[in-house]
């Protein structure tokens, strides 16, 4: 939020809750409260915790358009930018609470010729299902799934995505994340790895062809 404020940003075009686990949900509440949000995209998974109830309550109170994600949904924002959803492949009532990670919304974002893949907390079981997307997985920038956990980023999935940059969102001493095995897997493929526990805030800019990465601590 401080970074958005410094940049003079007071409106969020699209807010995505990948799945209703607290580490993904809690930080969205002040954004919903303090910013104008044009649209909310949710997995549709219902979680009986006070934070999720507040999330839904704010959306209703502010009359924000709300959409439940399904794989294959496509959103066109302009002639240069669009978004394709690659997960959840199944409807939300298929998943139970122990499988919420694999129901995470996965977003493929296109800007001109640039491609970003945001993977939530999916694990290998969801990655295998998503291989049906084949070339649609190919992306320049990968937000690594589940904080770099060893339960995600299977070799087959990483090979299909084939990114040039990988970003790991992780706090210090975060349940052993990221896994050294996953870091090694990415670096063995000459993928440049950035991680928030070491690099701080990671900002990636693109003109649709080239990329510029900046880190802030």
From TrEMBL:
Pfam families registered for this protein in UniProt: Lactamase_B
InterPro entries: ComA-like_MBL (IPR035681), Competence_DNA_uptake (IPR052159), Metallo-B-lactamas (IPR001279), RibonucZ/Hydroxyglut_hydro (IPR036866)
Gene3D superfamilies found in the cross-reference section: Ribonuclease Z/Hydroxyacylglutathione hydrolase-like
Domain Metallo-beta-lactamase stretches: 3-171
CDD domains for the chain: ComA-like_MBL-fold
PANTHER family found in the cross-reference section: BETA-LACTAMASE DOMAIN PROTEIN (PTHR30619:SF7), DNA INTERNALIZATION/COMPETENCE PROTEIN COMEC/REC2 (PTHR30619)
Protein name: Metallo-beta-lactamase domain-containing protein
């Amino acid at each position: 939020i401080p970074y958005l404020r410094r940049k003079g940003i007071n409106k969020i075009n699209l807010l995505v809750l990948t799945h209703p686990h607290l580490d993904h949900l809690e930080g969205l509440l002040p954004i919903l409260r303090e910013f104008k949000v044009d649209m909310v995209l949710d997995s549709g998974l219902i979680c009986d915790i006070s934070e999720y109830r507040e999330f839904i309550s704010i959306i209703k109170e502010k009359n924000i358009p709300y959409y439940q994600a399904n794989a294959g949904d496509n959103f066109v924002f302009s002639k240069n930018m669009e978004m394709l959803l690659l997960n959840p492949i199944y409807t939300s009532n298929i998943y139970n609470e122990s499988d919420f990670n694999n129901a995470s919304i996965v977003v493929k974002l296109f800007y001109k010729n640039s491609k970003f893949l945001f993977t939530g907390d999916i694990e290998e079981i969801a990655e295998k299902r998503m291989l049906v997307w084949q070339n649609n997985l190919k992306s320049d920038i990968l937000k690594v799934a589940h904080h770099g956990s060893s339960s995600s980023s299977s070799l087959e999935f990483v090979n299909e995505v084939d990114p040039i940059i990988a970003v790991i969102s992780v706090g210090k001493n975060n349940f052993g994340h990221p896994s050294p095995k996953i870091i090694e897997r990415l670096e063995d493929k000459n993928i440049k790895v950035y991680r928030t526990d070491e690099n701080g805030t990671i900002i990636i800019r693109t003109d649709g062809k080239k990329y510029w990465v900046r880190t802030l601590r």
